[in-house]
What does this fold into?
Amino acid sequence: MSTPSTVVDHSALKVNQTGIIVTVLVAFLGSVVFRPLLVLIPLLAIVLLLGTFAPQLALFKQLYFKVLKPRGIVKPRPVQDRPEPHNFAQGLGGVFLAVASVFLIPVPVIGLALALLVAVLAFVNLAFGYCLGCQIFFQLEKRGLVRA
Amino acid sequence: MSAQLWALAVAGAVVLAAAGLEIFRAWRGRRLVLASSSGAARRVPVNGEDPYVLYFTGDSCTVCKTHQEPALARLGNVRIDKVDAVVERELADRFHVYTLPTTVVIAPDGQALHVNYGYASAPKLERQLAEARRAGLPTAATA
It folds into this structure.
């Protein structure tokens, strides 16, 4: 098996996942008393999708690299890893949130449920290290649908 | 408020359904591998005396690097055959590898005794290896 030569800072991934969970929870719980807070969900979708294609625009990762890491608030955790599966997982989260955004006005139950599922998956990744998007990436790679 | 409660219920139902599906897939995969262990799995290379672990991994598997490999390292002097599930697709399919990491404990005679889909801790693997060692003892010795 080839060993990935790239290094991924897993602390950046954890900060990203925390950002997703907090934003969805604020939107979900906050919308009970202040409905316009639901706008956070489409905004989060934009942030995740932009970050997937242009890492310099990944808001939470930039927060980590520009603020949390230099000030020693979060310690770096470099792991020999490939960034592609993580980017794929982030993009998938962004797509789910974009679909959730479409449903938020006409069928809020579906929109909110989809957003909650993204938060649950981010939490599972943060707490247990299980990345569903990475598993889907593996299945696609195994079938030759994405290139290594 | 009712939209939030319904959304919570829908998300909860989806999570439960996904967990159920995951348990079913693991159970089915394990059953298929163990049921055919006298056939297909016997074709895996045999070690002779000691049980060993067939470890399916891949470049896209983060848990493999952060959790599974340290757990395997804790096993000490146990043979670990690392297999790239993307490259060795045929072997991965034979063991119904649908998730990474997957670890298979192979008895000295080449029979698959345990299949773990997802992360398997060192104590769990140690227990399975001990069982495989007992299974590998010659019956004549106890007769």
User: Anything to note?
Assistant: The CA atoms of residues 12 and 64 of chain A lie 6 Å apart. The beta strands of chain A are 7-9, 78-80. The mean pLDDT of chain A is 91. Chain A touches chain B at residues 1-2, 4, 10, 28-29, 31-32, 79-82, 84-86, 108-113, 116-117, 120, 129-131, 134-135, 137-139, 141-142, 148 (CB under 8 Å).
